[in-house]
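Revision sheet: structure tokens.
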Amino acid sequence: MEEVIIIGGGISGLATAYFLRKRGWSPLLLEAGAAPGGNLQSRQEDGYLRDMGPNSLLLKGRIVPEWLRELQLEGDIVEANPLAGRRYVLNRHRQPVALGPGVLFGGGLLSIHGRLRLFGEPFRPPHRTPDGEESIADFVRRRLGEEALTWLVDPFVSGVFAGNPARLSVQATLPRLAALERDGGSLLRGALRARKRKLPGTPKTRLVSFREGLQVLPLRVADTLGDTLRCDTPVEQLAYSGGMWQVGSRNQTWQSKRLVLALPAGAAARLLAPTDAALALELDAIPYPAVGSLSIGFQRPQVEHPLNGFGMLIPRVMGLETLGVLFSSTLFPGRAPAGKVLLTAFIGGSQNVLAGRDDDDLLATVLREIRPLLGISGDPVFSRCRVWPKAIPQYEIGHLDRMKRIDTLSAGHPGLYFRANWQGGVALGDCIEQAWEFSQATNWQR
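Predicted:
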């Protein structure tokens, strides 16, 4: 009998196994793929280093930085270029405009009316019905106005979450934003209060990667886990009997009183369907749009834009399919050979279905759209495409109520737990922090 069985070797499962081991437990981690890490995949090809899923890790607070120190990864960290603080967004004239205070005074992004609407935010009364969920679009319209939604927030939401602000819940997707209004009566006053509450000596937030890409992180965790981790072990059967969870993979079977599903919601639903159809239905209802990540290399003279920033977001109102472009070789060192640049473009999401489209079609679409925006001439000297059929879970309106129903239903199954990015935040740092908190909250008896 195993003390704990964890199914799913993405960052949530890996971190959960690591922190449980640190507390003295002996988990068994089962991963279907040949390597751990889920969508944390990096490749070195033709002198280019590309991350096919997430491209950076935000270090804030103490849990994630301390974990990297424990993993002895500090020497592998590469800091983001200071230019990463500059983010571009496409304006109505199809010109990339750097976001910042200047947006309030010019740049062709917001009209005079739109700027005045932003300036008036601190004087706008707070929402008087705090219960329930509100869409990001409704929240932003109410606080900042229609133009701020169209030109600032919508491109951010579609570029970062691959989502639709009219469908995503602000309380579930951007809880810190909703908390600013709740705590301060306005976003500005809430931000000022949060800044005052910040403790002296709080570590500065850092955007980082690793010299050989983000896949270094799951591979290092896997090394520390040793025999705890079993790759190439797809779980095909799951049942509960006699106070034990029975887990089957091919001709192997394990059992444990404690089962942690660190899986995408749909995968967890398929395993749980024979045991609890209602719970499986709730899990399977969490949407995951497809997203394509395209790594595109050029000779430096082929691109007129200075690429002096993090990247460029594209508002959906422009009618383009490309969600945004990261200036990858600017963001971190060693991403492209000397004299060349690497761009990472994203396409798809919940507002742009990718079904039935091949890699060549996606590359042609992205190139057609970004060439005039960045002043690109000629064909790329390097290109690769990776499509994630189910990329990012969407915390749509009703998500928080769904989480409550999932908690209620799963409470009827002793020893069943979940750790995945469909709850508690989709970012890498959120997944790691949630795994740590889970390990600290467990009060299991041996």
